[in-house]
Design goal:
Blueprint: H1 4-9, H2 11-21, H3 27-54, H4 61-92, E1 113-118, E2 140-141, H5 142-149, E3 155-156, H6 158-176, E4 181-182, E5 188-190, H7 191-196, E6 209-210, E7 217-219, H8 223-228, E8 235-236, E9 243-252, E10 271-281, H9 286-304, E11 308-312, E12 324-332, E13 337-346, H10 350-355, E14 358-360, E15 366-368, E16 370-378, H11 380-388, E17 396-397, H12 403-406, E18 410-411
Parallel strand pairs: 4-9, 8-14
Antiparallel strand pairs: 1-11, 2-3, 5-7, 6-7, 9-10, 10-16, 11-12, 12-13, 13-16, 14-15, 17-18
Helix pairs in contact: 3-4
Function: Catalyzes the attachment of serine to tRNA(Ser). Is also able to aminoacylate tRNA(Sec) with serine, to form the misacylated tRNA L-seryl-tRNA(Sec), which will be further converted into selenocysteinyl-tRNA(Sec).
Enzyme class: ligase
GO cellular component, one term: cytoplasm
Length: about 400
């Protein structure tokens, strides 16, 4: 959520941010609601002051009648203000974060900017996609997954399941060694957590609801939602910042907006495992911490030997909450292209304002923290490993750093 005073005092800044994002929002309607809200609040305060002054002395019968009418007017005005406040707050929740000045301008992913490339692509004459690798096919059950749960679900078996588990365990060990505290989080959250992290109301179509109207719980699409809500409504100690957390959870996404995309295989699915990092920081430290998180991701993929590139998302491709996002994309030789493996984002105070997460600054004032998140690894990184470590005979070598977890060196 943006600061309402910032919107009121600098509407041109907000309008530019909306234009840069190619985001459709009626800013004028919001400003009108704000004017009406402030005027009605001032009127209500005047009515209350009038009632208080009239109540100081013993009233006459005529004055009692006037006070009753005044109280009824106050009640009606309070109800009108409550309705207006609800509309205003709902509109505030629908404004995205302001892109940082360093974010490239553009409408979609074609305007994203490659910042860096790392790694030597494997020298394979005719690289296969992971689906076509003979050693993998017995252990990837697409048809059975579809019969059990529908499209975009699957089973992993035997060595492939162990390799996926090894990847997640290695990621957790790697991140906790960097000073991040491991959390086991809920995978069902209330609406307030999704509103607070900025995934509702705009992204509601992407989320699985559980027993709507009864439990009112939702399956997480990322553990960022549960971790960031961990400190909601809290005042943190400045000396304890930054606070660094990580979690490995299953994630669930309806993929409502991806019809026809990546329909072959398991690159885009409804359920997957993911290791996430979340940091709560002082505002002055957040941009430095973003770079640190990116560096951790780079070190992680270098340790796996996966060639990658860093990509700065343009304003039109940013997530709703993000002020800046850097993607790390891994090389898939079988597809001859880079694919997204993770994203590091600074949401500044956007989520903290919605979740009311604050700290006391050096002047003793209560300020909102900044929140950052970074996907270290998700299941699709397993697919990058399969394609980059494929051998001529169709088998797959296990990356050295994962062999102590798998206890085997080769699949197939």
């Amino acid at each position: 959520m943006l600061d309402s005073s910032l919107i009121r005092e600098h509407p041109e800044l907000i309008q530019k941010a909306l234009r840069d994002r190619a985001f459709d929002f009626d800013l004028r309607a919001l400003l009108t609601l704000d004017e009406e809200r402030r005027a009605l609040l001032q009127h209500l305060e005047g009515l209350r002051a009038d009632r208080n002054s009239r109540s100081k002395e013993k009233p006459s019968k005529a004055e009692i009648t006037r006070l009753k009418k005044l109280s009824e007017t106050i009640k009606q005005t309070e109800e009108k203000l409550a309705t207006l406040l609800s509309s205003y707050h709902d509109a505030l929740l629908r404004i995205p974060n302001i892109p940082d000045k360093s974010v490239p301008i553009g409408k979609d992913e074609t305007n994203n900017k490659v910042l860096k490339k790392w790694g030597k692509k494997p020298a394979l004459k005719k690289p296969l996609e992971y689906l076509d690798l003979p050693a993998i096919q017995p252990y990837l059950e697409l048809d059975r997954g579809a019969r059990t749960s529908g499209a975009r679900f699957y089973y992993l078996r035997g060595p492939l399941a162990l390799l996926e588990h090894a990847l997640m365990r290695y990621a957790v060990d790697f991140i906790t060694a960097k000073g991040f505290e491991l959390l086991v989080t809920p995978i069902l959250v209330q609406e307030s957590a999704l509103l607070g992290t900025g995934y509702f109301p705009n992204g509601k179509q992407e989320v699985y609801a559980v027993n709507p109207g009864q439990d009112n719980l939702y399956l997480i699409g990322t553990s960022e939602q549960a971790i960031t809500a961990f400190h909601q409504q809290e005042l943190l100690e400045a000396d304890d910042l930054p606070r660094r957390y990580t979690a490995c959870t299953p994630c669930f996404r309806r993929e409502a907006g991806s019809y026809g995309k990546d329909t072959r295989g398991i690159l885009r699915v409804h359920q997957f495992n993911k290791v996430e990092m979340v940091v709560f920081s002082k505002p002055d430290d957040s941009w430095k911490i973003l770079q640190e998180m990116i560096a951790i991701s780079e070190e992680f993929y270098q340790s796996l030997g996966i060639p990658y590139q860093l990509v700065a998302l343009c304003a039109g491709d940013l997530g709703f909450q993000s002020a800046k996002t850097i993607d790390i994309e891994g090389w898939f030789p079988g597809q001859a292209r880079y694919r997204e493996l993770g994203s590091a984002s600074n949401t500044t105070d956007f989520q903290a304002r919605r979740l009311n997460i604050r700290f006391k600054n050096t002047r003793g004032e209560k300020s909102f923290v900044h929140t950052l998140n970074n996907t270290v690894v998700a299941d699709r990184a397993l697919l990058a490993i399969l394609e980059n470590y494929q051998q001529k005979d169709g088998s797959v070598t296990v990356p050295t750093v994962l062999q102590k977890y798998t206890r085997f060196k080769k699949v197939g």
